[in-house]
Design a protein that fits this description.
heterotrimer, A alpha/beta (476), B alpha+beta (125), C alpha/beta (439), A: 476 residues, alpha/beta, Aspartate Aminotransferase, domain 2, Aspartate Aminotransferase, domain 1, 2 domains, 14 helices, 8% strand, globular, B: 125 residues, alpha+beta, OB fold (Dihydrolipoamide Acetyltransferase, E2P), 6-stranded antiparallel β-sheet, 3-stranded antiparallel β-sheet, 38% strand
Chain lengths: 476, 125, 439
């Protein structure tokens, strides 16, 4: 595929602007740009065709099954897009007078009310733009809380070794040192290790439940109680909420602050890597510290004095919240547990059909995702999780998440979600089983996949050693 | 497995050569095999302190990053800047691609011999 | 109730029986403590079918005022969006795809990011770009974190930057325990004397160009003084201005960050926006977030991959310099399509229209009583004036007439003119202002 710069021809253009109606005024020479930017020069038809070609080499939820563990690739409803495109939402300046944005406030207030009820929290901010951003904000809430009580000894955060990389990274951004808590043989938090790690230097624990291996930790109430007894707070990573929404609330499990991934649980589209939204909910003890936009507060006359500050401009990814609200209103009281229950059922259904061919990391009932391990298969045949994943590409299925969580070797994490029908699940199982037969008959043949895709096994070593991260115009 | 007899070894897979009052430190052939193709190395600075059993540098492969643990106490006198442009030198010859040289060294006593290191990695494999 | 579940109740029952269970609840009872397993879902209203949901949301949208004339900026700008932009970005393949971790089936997405990275480097006159971060304010905060070294941590931030940006940087600095200082201003511009003799632990100086008041700072001088102190120069830029204005690269800056909303994203009451980050080659490995690189595949074909991943959280974990995972990929694509539709000439035309329109408006306002400019320095498309009446009342009266006037900053007004406002419209606005103020 040609790069857009390789399609550019000098002098080609579209016509967006009228001639200036103003008296001519030149920018002073010392302020003017010397070298114009080498942006593409193209007609509109060429732009349209270029992106049409690119779209052919992208795989969306509309293309096929997408069982990426921990990402919750559920269907993104079209009504969400239609609503998010209403000019009454898009053409609104963030600093308009309050009386002219009653609709925007209603969106956030309604979303806040519903999500607090769904999660068992007392208040919520929509400012963070993604899950990791929410983790950052949530940990800042915890930091501010301890600081406000003069409790400066608390410099550590506990994180299970099975946690997503954003958890320890977020803790570091907030100046905490991370103590890893090992998982027990069931994949859950080792209670003894937790007990010995707890003292008055612990600010809090970051946890997700169900955890990253797809298991609901049945000791959850004990875990959160232990942390509270030691004077710490409990942070809930909401990435796996799709397993339990409508059945269990993080607030009831002993969590004080949570973040949500609207682009996972609440059906807003992933966009190739964003925009997402990572709202942070909290209990009453933390609500006064919630972040606030300085400019936003100014037009409301009065800054939030105890807020810890802010993590970005304005109020958050508003149009993403609009989509999530549309979804929640659609599903409602009965729809939420139906969706999460079905997500868990689909996962267990697939797992039951694969467990005889691929060893499970944990052979027991799972939540919305389960983990296969290719460790034994690799030892015996040399075929790795990567090989199986690449082979699935030729079957038209997006591979599961590879090599995560780190506590399982040669992991493949499968999350079907609730918006897949049985035929799709059966076809995927068939593909996995076909690959298994191939591993048994001819393991060597698994090394070269995929073969039907436009490219195969790119050289990532060279890409990292000699990074080329932009087009070189001199080669034109 | 390449394990030169004239070197001493740490359990975290670094090698040490004593030469003219200084020590030269690198990572072993076993380590570079485990890490895979190296793409980048984060080197310390000259005059930085080395603390035994603490990380002083790290190496990146495409999908992982690994700390390099100091086998001794000391002060860094030289760093091998050639590795910044070509970290793959470590993959090619782990024993000639030294990482740092150090002076004022202590803590050499409980480093392993080549035989002891060979035994260690045969257990790990 | 609305639902997206393909499975019918009988299919659900069959699947449950296939794994030896009777009800969905049986999936939860083994592990979830009875005291927290909800009996009857959460206490929210029942779901709605599509027609009802649409009506409900449309009603909410109708409670917002869409202004016909927008003369306010201050971090969010009413620019023209070419129609092709939304056509491309609403394609389901781009909208619903995940982060391109499997390069073999996502060359389209990866290439589009590579193209975006190139365009941002070109726009800012620097060498490398990342795949985007959340917005201009968090980009500024990430940029100052990039400049942290073992011996230099102190951050100097222009007091003439956008208040939300200043406060975001301050929050990030508080989080990491990084010393934060604000640089004084005189008459709306940074006091250059404040930058002479910066302490030895200074990591960087952050300046916004044009600044919050719309004024051009003495950016080149600031970059020089910063370098003399051994620190890094970070510029916050306004992407439309770079159609005709000197770029951060040309002015000697090391890192450039900006709010990309003006490049094809609607104002959307504050988000989603786009954080642009570019830097000199030497700083490439310090950039947070995703970066796409070019390589070859096993058959020698050109291929794109996410590269330099060992910087990122999923590998470095607590040693990562940033925790960012999901970024603003679709917004970055939006910016790329916008710039392709505009081309260098189109972007220059937009910038020129903004510049000329703002200066014409400023002159016309100056002819009225009490609307003189507050500052003297040269500006791009935003400027501050006094107001002869109470600013709140003025704003209300203008709003009643369908005009979103300049932002009230204390008792003054911060105006903005974009290419969407032509001479006729400005003349009409002037007439209305005269009427509102009884002139």
């Amino acid at each position: 595929m040609k790069l857009i710069f390789e399609r550019s021809v000098s002098g080609r253009r579209t016509f967006q602007m009228p001639m200036s109606s103003f008296p001519r005024k030149e920018l002073p020479k010392e302020l003017a740009r010397q070298t114009p930017p080498r942006l593409p020069e193209m007609s509109e038809v060429a732009i349209s065709r270029h992106y049409t070609q690119l779209a052919k080499q992208a795989f969306g939820v509309n293309n096929g099954f997408y069982p990426l563990g921990s990402c919750t690739m559920k269907y993104n409803p079209r009504i969400n897009e239609a609503v998010a495109a209403l000019t009454g939402f898009t053409k609104i300046h963030p600093l308009q007078p309050q009386e002219t944005v009653r609709g925007c406030h209603e969106v956030l207030d309604t979303a806040r009310e519903l999500l607090c009820e769904i999660t068992g929290m007392d208040d919520m901010t929509f400012q963070p733009a993604a899950g990791a951003h929410g983790e950052f904000a949530g940990l800042l809430l915890i930091k501010k809380y301890h600081e406000s009580r003069g409790d400066t000894k608390r410099t550590r955060v506990l994180v299970p070794d099975s946690a997503h990389g954003t958890n320890p990274a977020s803790a570091s951004m907030v100046g905490y040192t991370v103590t890893h808590i090992p998982s027990d043989s069931e994949g859950c938090v080792d209670l003894e290790a937790l007990r010995s790690a707890l003292d008055d230097t612990v600010a809090g624990l970051m946890l997700t439940n169900p955890n990253t291996v797809g298991i609901f930790d049945r000791n959850i109430l004990e875990i959160t109680r232990l942390v509270h007894d030691a004077g710490g707070l409990n942070y809930y990573d909401g990435a796996n909420l799709n397993a339990i929404m409508g059945w269990v609330r993080p607030g009831d499990m002993g969590f004080d602050v949570i973040h949500l991934n609207l682009h996972k649980t609440f059906s807003t589209p992933h966009g190739g890597g964003g925009p997402g939204s990572g709202p942070v909910g909290c209990k009453n003890i933390l609500k006064e510290f919630l972040p606030a936009s300085y400019m936003g507060e100014r037009i409301k006359k009065g800054e939030k004095p105890r807020s810890f500050g802010q993590v970005r401009s304005f109020y958050g990814n508003f149009l993403v919240v609009v989509r999530a609200l549309t979804y929640i209103l659609t599903l409602g009281k009965e729809g939420l547990p139906q969706a999460s229950g079905m997500a868990v059922l689909n996962a267990n259904y697939m797992m039951s059909k694969l467990k005889h061919a691929y060893p499970l990391a944990y052979d027991r009932i799972c939540m919305h995702e389960f983990v296969l391990t290719l460790e034994k298969i690799k030892k015996e045949t040399g075929v790795s999780a990567l090989d199986v994943a690449k082979c699935l590409l030729d079957h038209g299925i997006h591979p599961p998440t590879m090599y995560f969580p780190l506590v399982v070797n040669e992991a493949l994490m499968v999350e079907p979600t609730e918006t897949e029908n049985r035929e799709t699940l059966d076809a995927a199982v068939e593909a996995f089983l076909k690959i298994k037969r191939q591993i048994e008959d001819n393991p060597q043949s698994l090394r070269g996949y995929p073969v039907t895709t436009p490219i195969s096994r790119p050289d990532e070593v060279n890409a990292a050693r000699n990074p080329v991260v932009r087009y070189d115009f001199s080669q034109a | 497995m390449n394990i030169p007899k004239n070197l001493r070894y740490a359990a975290s897979h670094e090698w040490v050569l004593e030469k003219n009052g200084e020590v030269i430190i690198g990572i072993t052939d076993f380590a570079q095999k485990e890490l895979g193709d190296l793409v980048f190395i984060n080197l310390p600075n000259v005059d930085d302190e080395l603390v035994k059993d603490e990380a002083f540098a790290d190496v990146e492969s495409v999908k992982a990053v690994s700390d390099i643990i100091s086998p001794v106490n000391g002060v860094i006198s030289q760093v091998n800047e050639a590795l910044l442009d070509a970290p793959e030198l470590i993959n090619e010859d782990a024993y000639s691609a030294w990482i740092v040289k150090a002076k004022s060294v202590s803590g050499l006593d409980n480093l392993m011999s080549a035989e002891q290191y060979e035994e260690l990695i045969s257990k790990e494999a | 109730m609305g639902s997206y579940l393909p499975s019918t109740p009988s299919e659900q029952q069959e699947m449950l029986e296939a794994i030896g269970l009777g009800h969905l609840r049986d999936l939860y009872t083994p592990d979830v403590p009875a005291s927290v397993l909800l009996e009857d879902s959460v206490n929210i209203p029942s779901g709605l079918p599509e027609m009802s949901v649409r009506a409900r949301m449309e009603k909410m949208a109708s409670k917002n005022t869409v202004f016909g004339t927008v003369l306010r900026g201050a971090g969010s700008y009413n620019h023209h969006i070419p129609a092709i932009v939304n056509t491309v970005t609403s394609r389901e393949e781009f909208l619903t795809t995940y982060t391109p971790y499997q390069p073999e089936i996502s060359q389209g997405v990866l290439q589009s990011i590579f193209e975006y990275q190139t365009m941002m480097a070109e726009l800012t006159g620097l060498d490398v770009s990342n795949a985007s971060v959340y917005d201009g304010a968090s980009a500024a905060a990430e940029a100052v974190m990039m400049t942290q070294t073992r011996s230099r941590s102190r951050v100097y931030v222009a007091s003439t930057a956008h208040p939300d940006v200043i406060r975001t940087i301050k929050t990030y600095c508080w989080g990491r325990g990084v010393p934060f200082c604000e640089i004084h201003q005189n008459d709306g511009l940074l006091d250059l004397d404040a930058l002479r003799d910066l302490p030895k632990d200074t990591a960087c100086v952050y300046v916004q160009q044009p600044n919050f008041y719309g004024l051009f700072e003495q950016a080149e001088g600031i970059a020089e003084l910063t370098h003399e102190a051994g620190a890094k120069a970070v510029m916050g830029f306004y992407p439309i201005s770079l159609g005709i204005c000197k770029s951060p690269g040309e002015m000697g800056f090391d890192i450039a960050v900006g709010e990309g909303q003006p490049l094809g994203l609607p104002m959307s009451w504050g988000g989603p926006y786009l954080g642009i980050m570019t830097a000199r080659k030497e700083l490439m490995r310090m950039l947070p977030g995703r970066i796409v690189g070019e390589t070859k595949d096993s058959k020698g074909r050109r291929a794109y991959v996410l590269t330099l991943q060992a910087r990122e959280q999923h590998i470095r974990r607590e040693k990562a310099s940033s925790n960012i995972c999901t970024n603003q990929a679709l917004c970055a694509m939006t910016a790329a399509v916008y710039l392709a539709a505009m081309g260098p000439d189109g972007l220059a035309e937009v910038a020129q229209l903004c510049y000329e329109g703002a200066h014409y408006f400023s002159e016309e306002l100056g002819k009225l009583k009490g609307f003189g400019r507050v500052h003297k320095a040269e500006f791009f498309n935003e400027f501050m004036t006094y107001c002869p009446m109470d600013v709140r009342l003025f704003e209300l009266e203008m709003a009643r007439r369908g005009i979103l006037c300049g932002l009230a900053v204390d008792d003054k007004l911060l105006w903005c003119v974009t290419e969407k406002v032509d001479k006729q419209e400005i003349d009409d606005v002037i007439a209305i202002i005269k009427e509102v103020c009884g002139q």
